[in-house]
Amino acid sequence: MSNFTHFDKNGNAVMVDVSHKDETIREAVAVGSIKMSKECFDKVKAGGMKKGDVLGIARVAGIMGAKKTAELIPLCHILNLSKVEIDFDLDDNENKIMASCVVKTVGKTGVEMEALTGVNICLLTIYDMCKAVDKGMEILEIKLMKKTGGKSGVWER
């Protein structure tokens, strides 16, 4: 178990002690997408869903999700986030919405989990708002694209 940081020498789950680490600027970018029927995609794009502005609400939900990561993932640290940004790209050819979540802080631990949570909550919100039109939507390709800061420096997919 020595390769996993969230277990002690006896195999018990622990929150990693970051008290000895230096504070650095930390940033992470996560992406994901949701594929849907043409009818559903066109309604989202035109702002024609009965529940309202799907992408606007999903953006706010993603930001809120990133901020609440420590409440959802048991061993995550509570972080003071300085930036959460959600952006969308719409692919008319595949009826797909791509979402990205950028999270930034100055701290002793990274924000990868916050970026991944933000993009997941954003996509789940799109699903929730659109499920009356298309229950067959697929949430796809969720992954960390980049992280910076800390002792390990830059990691990029």
TrEMBL record:
It comes from the Bacteria. GO terms for biological process: Mo-molybdopterin cofactor biosynthetic process. The active site is at D128. It catalyses: (8S)-3',8-cyclo-7,8-dihydroguanosine 5'-triphosphate = cyclic pyranopterin phosphate + diphosphate. Keywords: Lyase, Molybdenum cofactor biosynthesis. CDD domains: MoaC_PE. The keyword ATP-binding does not apply. Its EC number is 4.6.1.17. Residues 15-150 form the Molybdopterin cofactor biosynthesis C (MoaC) domain. The keyword Oxidoreductase does not apply. Pathway: Cofactor biosynthesis; molybdopterin biosynthesis. Substrate binds at L75, C76, H77, M113, E114. One of its GO terms (molecular function) is cyclic pyranopterin monophosphate synthase activity. SUPFAM superfamilies: Molybdenum cofactor biosynthesis protein C, MoaC. PANTHER family: CYCLIC PYRANOPTERIN MONOPHOSPHATE SYNTHASE, MOLYBDOPTERIN COFACTOR SYNTHESIS PROTEIN A. Belongs to the MoaC family. Homohexamer; trimer of dimers. Catalyzes the conversion of (8S)-3',8-cyclo-7,8-dihydroguanosine 5'-triphosphate to cyclic pyranopterin monophosphate (cPMP). This is Cyclic pyranopterin monophosphate synthase. The lineage of its organism: Bacteria, Bacillati, Bacillota, Clostridia, Peptostreptococcales. The gene is moaC.
